[in-house]
Design brief:
Strand order of the largest sheet of chain B: 1-4
Order of helices and strands of chain B: HHEEEE
Number of helices of chain B: 2
Number of domains of chain A: 1
Number of strands of chain A: 8
CATH class of chain A: Alpha Beta
Distance between the termini of chain A: 27 Å
CATH superfamily of chain A: P-loop containing nucleotide triphosphate hydrolases
Distance between the termini of chain B: 35 Å
Structural class of chain B: alpha+beta
Number of strands of chain B: 4
Largest sheet of chain A: 8 strands, mixed
Structural class of chain A: alpha/beta
Oligomer: heterodimer
CATH topology of chain A: Rossmann fold
Helix content of chain B: 25-40%
Strand order of the largest sheet of chain A: 3-4-2-5-1-6-7-8
Chain lengths: 265, 87
């Protein structure tokens, strides 16, 4: 299988990009793949915290880009999984410290050792976003079922289309089925209808994520967590498996909607 | 599919959906340079099969109101063609 560089982005901040990157990387590593997670959010690094690796950082992405160390020296091996690595962001530099061309070069080098390179993009649509996007073969846009998040996701999808990115998929995070049922929240179907790009994951709201973040242990390692299960399903879909989306309560099943959407293509 | 619910019966989910759709009409048009110009050209060229229109006097605008987006076109007609011109 060809190595794949997948950038996780969203436009709006706080929708769960970093949590999804850490967990997706962990899930792919659990499935036996060589995986590296790259934190492209320079100046506001968090991926290390989600993975519980914040105490092990010696060199970072900016050191690699500026030639102060070799790429291999900056990679941190996960505590639990020997086939999972982190390339941390710098905490003290600003977002322009790494250029899109640097990122492309670094990811090219990572492709020779890893089957999956997951890049965690910063929020926004400026320099950091363009840098994170530059090496991507595939892009996952994360949103939540909220007006502002969906609006920003639409803007990002437009920019990705303009940039010629062909594989762009949607992950909808923090879905609360009981609120959808009551008519208080946008449903998965509503969001899909508005954004009309293929769906790769639906992650329910889950307090276990906060617990997992506090402990620095990705929630996919908790077999009882519904959000962990949803991200494992997402990883399986990325690997080409057909994993049905759990039927969320609502007016129309997601299967109907998806098949309708596919027919329209 | 129901786009616009009856006033007073709408729940927060429907309101959110409606607001989003309107926002995206404006956003998508505003961020695509040349969108309105291209639309204007497409409109004029298909109208041209039926009518002889005053291109310079044509005005095209987008109005986003309380609950819908509306494309408003004002096209002065010079004359109506006797025969529809097919491509």
């Amino acid at each position: 299988m060809e190595p794949r560089v997948i950038t996780i982005t969203s436009g709006k901040g706080g929708v769960g990009k970093t949590t999804i990157t850490a967990n997706l990387a962990t899930a792919l590593a659990l499935a036996g793949h060589q995986v590296v997670a790259v934190d492209a959010d320079i100046g506001l690094r968090n991926l290390d915290v989600m993975m519980g690796l914040e105490n092990r950082i010696v060199y970072d992405l900016v050191d690699v880009a500026e030639g102060r160390c070799r790429l291999r020296q900056a990679l941190i091996r996960d505590k639990r999984l020997s086939n999972l690595f982190l390339l941390p962001a710098a905490q003290t530099k600003d977002k322009t410290a790494v250029q899109p061309a640097d990122m492309v070069k670094i990811c090219e080098e990572l492709r020779s050792e890893f089957s999956f390179v997951l890049v965690d993009s910063p929020a926004g649509i400026e320099h950091g976003f363009r840098t994170a996007l530059a090496p991507a073969d595939e892009v996952i846009v994360v949103t939540t079922p909220e007006v502002a998040a969906v609006r920003d996701a639409d803007r990002v999808i437009g920019l990705l289309e303009a940039a010629g990115k062909e594989s762009v998929e949607l992950a909808i995070n923090r879905v609360k089925p009981e609120m959808v049922e009551r008519g208080d929240m946008l449903s998965v179907e509503d969001v899909l209808e508005i954004l009309s790009i293929p769906l790769i994951g639906v992650i329910p709201e889950d307090p276990e994520v906060i617990v997992a973040t506090n402990k620095g242990v990705p929630v996919v390692l908790n077999n009882l967590s519904p959000s962990g299960q949803a991200i494992k399903d997402m990883a399986r879909r990325l690997l080409g498996e057909e994993v049905p989306f759990p039927t969320l309560k609502g007016k129309e099943s997601i299967f109907n909607l998806l098949s309708r959407w596919l027919r329209r293509k | 599919m129901r786009l616009f619910g009856k006033a007073g019966l709408r729940n927060p989910r429907d309101i959110a959906k409606e607001r989003l759709k309107l926002m995206l009409i404006q956003d998508r048009i505003q961020v695509s340079p040349g969108f309105m110009e291209e639309l204007r050209e497409a409109l004029l060229s298909s109208l041209g099969k039926y009518l002889d229109v005053d291109r310079e006097g044509t005005e095209l605008s987008l109005e986003v109101g309380e609950n819908r987006g509306k494309l408003v076109a004002s096209v002065p007609i010079k004359s109506v063609k006797r025969r529809v011109e097919h491509d």
